[in-house]
Design a protein that fits this description.
5 helices, 171 residues, MST-like, flat
Length: 171
């Protein structure tokens, strides 16, 4: 059975239907991410992290505080701003605590609110600016740490990693 969708009125044509995600992706000619094919362990680590970080920035580009803080599917607290804060927390944990062995306080996490990275992602321009600044500072630290590590087989100097294998750069 074929269904024909008619316009509500002759003066009001139906919009052209396009692929629903076409505005969610960057065309290959504009995509700043690599196509993979990294050679060697260090190039793979650096390239993979760079591409993942660029993906987050691409998804958030041009969005205001309200759009960044919009929850994906309520009651979930997931939002792009929450992801920026969460990734700052992830970079902070893995590079400062686990790999560098720094004794630093948790980021976007308290005893009362272990999900503060997402729960605190509110549509406030100051919160957005602080999240980006924090994330970029954590990324800069990570990049400097990786660049200054002569041998990626060197185990991390700390025991705060969740497992012994996670203390190695190569895992």
């Amino acid at each position: 059975m074929t269904h024909i969708i008619e316009s509500p009125s002759p003066e009001e044509p139906l919009p052209d239907r396009t692929f629903g995600w076409s505005d969610m992706f960057v065309g290959p000619e504009e995509d700043p991410r690599s196509d993979g094919g990294f050679e060697g362990e260090r190039a793979t680590l650096v390239g993979y992290l760079r591409d993942q970080r660029l993906t987050l920035e691409l998804k958030c580009a041009g969005l205001d505080a309200e759009a960044l803080a919009r929850r994906s599917v309520p009651p979930s607290t997931m939002s792009l701003l929450g992801l920026v804060r969460h990734m700052a927390r992830v970079e902070h944990y893995w590079f400062r605590k686990a790999m560098a062995g720094e004794d630093v306080p948790k980021l976007y996490c308290t005893e009362d609110d272990p999900d503060l990275d997402f729960n605190g992602a509110v549509p406030d321009p100051e919160v957005v600016a602080e999240a980006w600044e924090t994330w970029r500072a954590q990324v800069a630290f990570a990049e400097k740490l990786v660049a200054g590590t002569p041998d990626l087989a060197t185990p991390a100097p700390t025991t705060t990693s969740p497992s012994p294998s996670a203390r190695s750069w190569s895992t």
